[in-house]
Amino acid sequence: MRYGRTMTAAFVLTIMGFVLCSLGSAEENKDFVPGEDSGFYYTIKKGDTLWDLSQKFYNSEWDWPGLWEMNQDIKNPHWIYPGKKIRIFLKENTAVKPEFVKIEEIKPEKPPEKIIPSFSFSEMDRIGFVRKTAEPHVGSVIKDQDNKIMMSSNDIIYIKPSGKGTLIPGNRYHVFSTSPVKTKTFSGIKHILRARIEIREHKTTYATAKVIKAYREIREGDMIMEYRNREPVLTVDESPSPVDGRILCSEDDNIMINDNRIAFIDIGSDHVRPGQIYSVMRSVNKTDNSLWLQNPKSEVKFDNINAGKLIVLHTEDISSTVMILSSKYEINPDDIVN
Predict the structure, then answer these.
(1) 140-155 burial string, b = 16+ CB within 10 Å, else e?
(2) Is residue 208 domain-shared with residue 244, that is, in the same domain?
(3) What is the model's pTM?
């Protein structure tokens, strides 16, 4: 009798273990089912990019910044590695239609809604810009409370007012620096945002502030401007009117400007607006040696090659701030935007 009970218990435990293992395996390997799942883990395969995964799971390449933001352990969106699991949160979908419907209950389907693609970039309020002249500053950084040479997040800093504005306790401001941008046809001032600060106290000859978020190193002499919040979601226009512009430089003066880098172009708000997508073209000229021997001035003219795509993030009167979305070839200053 005891032997029979033992065998029965062992059989029940075996069956339960098999069921649990099956459920665990199904959970681990379950497929993406639109409209049923709220989210799951995806294992990155060789050749995957956040751009491609955004298209695969959200039917839009432009949602990749949101996918990156969901997975904060991905430090650099350029580098995702095969074998790593990332979280995929699914968007809300329409309910699944019932399997059996009476004929009299069938109603004419509504015409499909037009899908308006959007681009989300959570760091929109930290991108720089280029203007004809420098932005007036309301103060400048004197020093760090702890005498640090390079200041960063959570530091307390001292600010000297410029007399051209007011440093109000409790208000947010940007720390910024400037540098000239010059080409054969363009001249302007590049503004680089370095940190977001909050004023704590305003004394007679100085003010104190806490560094809420440092985007870059803060140095003595860096200037203070009022904080301007920018909308992080843009409506995408993939077919804007053609323009004739040039890449000026990258935000951080990179010689080669690759995917996800911030850059500036010499076209302003009169011709472009945020959310528009343009091609970056490379002009190719190469002297044909056989023709050169006959006529040293002759050159073989090649068509421009498509080097990549960019999206406009912010516009000023004489320039615009853009992000390189994709690059087939290296993108450099003076490449064509159209």
Answers:
(1) ebeebeeeeeebeeeb
(2) no
(3) 0.66
